[in-house]
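SEVERITY: medium
COMPONENT: batch folding queue
REPORTER: lab tech (J.R.)

DESCRIPTION
The queue accepted two submissions in a row. Attaching both inputs and their returned C-alpha cells so the on-call engineer can compare them side by side.

ATTACHMENT 1
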Amino acid sequence: MRREEKAKYIDNLAAELQASSIVYLTDTADLTVESVNSLRRRCFQANIKMRVVKNALLQKAMDKVEGKNYSGLSSVLKGSTSIMFSEVANAPAKLIQDFRKKSEKPLLKGAYIDEAIFVGDNQLVVLEALKSKEELVGEIIGLLQSPAKNVLSGLKGAGGKIAGILKTLEERGK
C-alpha cells in the first residue's frame, strides 16, 4: 500500500471510529475462509459492520480521533485484528457467543462502548449482558408507571368499598 493509500485508509477508519460509539476488536486468526465468510454473513444480518484491519493503521486511526480515548485498547493490538462496528452495545457480544458454539474463535480482544473500555475475552459475558438503550428506556418507563398503577388500583378498590358500604347503609335505612 502506498503512502497516499495508507493516509486515505487511516482517514476513513478514523471517520468510522468517530461516528461509532460501539467498537469491538476481535481475533479471527486461524478461522477457515468458510468460517470467516459465515461470520461476515452473520454480522451483515445483525447490522454489524466487520472488517479486518492492520494494527499499526488502526492505532494511527485511533490516535487521530478527537474526543475519544482509545489508549486502553493499544495493548491488544497484536496479531490478527478484526474490528466490528455496531449500533447496539451487546449485539456483537451475542453474535460472538453464538458463533463460538461451533468454533473456538473469534476471541474478544477488547471493546469500546460509550467511553468505557473492556479488555480481554473474559469480558464477553459482561458485554453480552449489557442492555440496549431501548431496553433501558422500557424498564424506566415500567418503573415509573408502577407507582401510578398502584395508586389507581388502590383508589378504585377503596372507591368500590365505599360505594358498597354506602349501598349497604342505604338498604338498612329503608
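ATTACHMENT 2
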Amino acid sequence: MFTWMSVQDNVEFGPLAIGKSKAEAAHIAARYVEMVGLSSFAKRYPYELSGGMQQRVGIARALANDPQILLMDEPFAALDAQTRELLQEEIKRIWQSTRKTVLWITHSIEEALFLATDIVVMSARPGRIKARLAPQFALSEDPAVVASAEFVRMKAEIFGMLREEALMAQQQEAAR
C-alpha cells in the first residue's frame, strides 16, 4: 500500500492507472472497499489500520483491477490466529460472491482445506506434484466445517504426505 494515500485512494490507484476516469475509479474502489468491510475506514491511512485491515485493503486493491487470476502468496502468515481465521472467512465470502480464480500458496493445511476447491501437494526436490485433492469445504458457508470428520480426515492425509516429503528433504540435505 502507498502510505501517503487513504484506503479509498489506494484502491482507486489500479483503475486510474489503466485509464479509468476518476468517477469510475471511485465507484469501483467504493464497491471493493465495501466488499472487504472497510467503508467506514475509506478515508483512513494505512498506519491507522490494523494488520488485518491492511490485508483487506490489499485484497480490495487486487480485486479493483478485475484480474482473471488472483495470486495469494501466504497472505495471512503474519497475522494472529483469530484475525487469520476471520480473514479466511472473509476471503471465502468474497470468493463465493466474485467466483474469481484464486491461486493460494500456503503452508497451512487448514487454510488450504478451508479455502481451496483444488489442492496440489508438492514433493521434495525436485518439486513435482505429489497429489491433487478436491476438497469441497470452500463451498460451505459454515465455519464449523473445520471440525467435521471429513475435514479432520483430509487434514491427517495431507499432513502425512507433507511429513513424508519433509523427511525426504531432510535426508537429501544430510546426504549433501
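NOTES FROM REPORTER
Residues 149-175 form the longest helix (27 residues).
No errors were logged for either attachment.
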